[in-house]
Amino acid sequence: MFGASSCASLSIESRSIDSQTYLKSRLGESIQRIQERDHFALRYCPDNTCDEIAFDHMTPEPVAWDVLLAFLTLKSSYYVLRDFKTEAVSKAIPNLTNRYQVTEAPKADFSGADIYDTLKQSYKFTVYFVRFDENHVSRIISPEN
Questions:
Q1: What is the pTM of this model?
Q2: In whole angstroms, what is the distance from residue 132 CA to residue 69 CA?
Q3: Which residues pair with 43 in a beta bridge?
Q4: Count of CB atoms within 10 A of residue 128's CB?
Q5: What are phi and psi of 127, to 5 degrees?
Q6: pLDDT higher than 70, residue 1
Q7: Which of 7, 54, 101, 143 is in the most buried spot, having the most CB atoms within 10 Å?
């Protein structure tokens, strides 16, 4: 289902913006980290629904937070994120683009829109849509997988 993988074409540069801090400062309590026996997950839950990204324990924690930031900014369909997305595209995504560089392609060819796909190809994770209804939890794999 998921697992860390190293990709020769990806290098990680220094982290000038910490994605966890950035997300929690802008989205607050709607951001959650869930620890399970065989994996951990990061969730964005603005109401009784969530975008959830599950990672195995081999995935570095900073990478997981970067994935969540890229997903919420570039892929999530939550309307309530529109102002967050506008800010993140100009402030946080360029930082991620600089952090994860595709080494066999010129840097000029690596746009902000590519960062989520690059992370998806380099690290294994699964995106879910989660809904909480009274005593029932529905968890389905997102079309973004």
A1: 0.83
A2: 23
A3: 32, 52
A4: 18
A5: -100, 135
A6: no
A7: 54
3-state SS string for the chain: CCCCCCCCCEEECCCCCCHHHHHHHHHHHHEEEEECCCCEEEEECCCCEEEEEEECCCCCHHHHHHHHHHHHHHCCCCHHHHHHHHHHHHHCHHHHHHHEEECCCCHHHCCHHHHHHHHHHHCCCEEEEEEEECCEEEEEECCCC
Letter for the amino acid at 75? K
User: Between helices 19-27 and 82-91, what is the axis angle to 10°?
Assistant: 150
pLDDT in tens, 13-61: 444 789 999 999 999 999 999 999 999 999 999 999 999 999 999 999 9
CA atoms within 13 Å, Cβ hemisphere of 133: 4
- How far apart CA 28 and CA 43 sit, in angstroms, is 12
Reading the block at residue 115, the tokens are: 């960062």
Contacts of residue 24, defined as CB under 8 A and 6 or more positions apart, other chains included, come to 31
Burial class (CB in 10 A: 0-12, 13-18, 19+), 13: exposed
